[in-house]
Model the fold of this input.
Amino acid sequence: MLLIKTNRDTLLKPLQTVTGIVERRQTLPILSNVLIQQNEEKTSFLTTDLEIQIKTVTTKDLSSKQNFALTVSAKKLQDILRSLSSDAEITLTQKDDHLQVKSGKSAFNLQILPAADFPEVVEESESDATITLKQNELKNLLHQVQFAVAQQDIRYYLNGLLLLTEDKQLISVGTDGHRLAYIAAGLDTEQKRQEVILPRKAVFELSKLLEDKEDPVKIEYFQNKVRFSFSDIILTSKIIDGKFPDYNRVIPTRNTKLFEIDRLIFLQALQRVSILSNQSEKFRGVRLIVSTDNLHIICKNNEQEEAEEELEIKYGDESVDISLNITYLLDLLNNVSSETVQCAFENSNSSVLITVPGNKEFKYIVMPMRI
Done:
């Protein structure tokens, strides 16, 4: 039975959209599959890992004459399509419990699992709250803080990113307990307070799928999940059940000793000295000595090797000698796009506040290390 006849890219593009959350090895074999459905001249592709679900619908002509629903290995189908030329004509044919993918003289037979067994997330129609903003604004909100989100922390609520709507703001916060990134964006209308913790995997998948354009994205909040709708994509994610730390208590208010520095110059200096840091350790320390018009950067390792850099800065306050995790600084400088950053200190034992000049909505806080 002929299901689809089309060119490779028409099939590959929606498939690539949904396969990011799919793991090759699953406890349930069907979770490695993509659900492909044809209904009323629309073809949908859907994947899930039981926590996140991604669906995309294409109305492009796939030359399908009948409705159908089946599931097939997402990664295998994607790999097959990638291996063919971009202008190749593809036919998908169902033969009993196999899907045949054919192009020219190439043919691949993939096992099919029943569509009825696919565990779709139940779609709710009534949301608790809905907001709309531009795709590039949401992409920026996620990108500027996602690197600070914890990975596999026993404090499960840190393994996600806080999305908070309040008044006319959408606030995004990520922290691993040692550093915190905060950014806010303005909304057109007043909003009631809504607070959710979005899992790390959903954050990174959204960052990949959102485009750097002004087209709208609709965010709908439900009791235990949140849904993002944009372009032809619907991403639904469960939320982490927990209480996110009070970020306002972490943001320093007495850091009056400050200097501005060129972001690239600072980044390159840190990259050079990091060569002699303890590469095998999770927490790699760098010592910053801030004195009159001078920033002295020092890295040492367990072999008693040492790297030093000196940079000129405009600074006239009392000296500060502080040790920080160099990875946290590199993460920030690699992920912001501003020409300069501002570093503000209270003393050698207090957190450092790093901001972007001219942008009051972004803050990055790093706790000092003992080395």
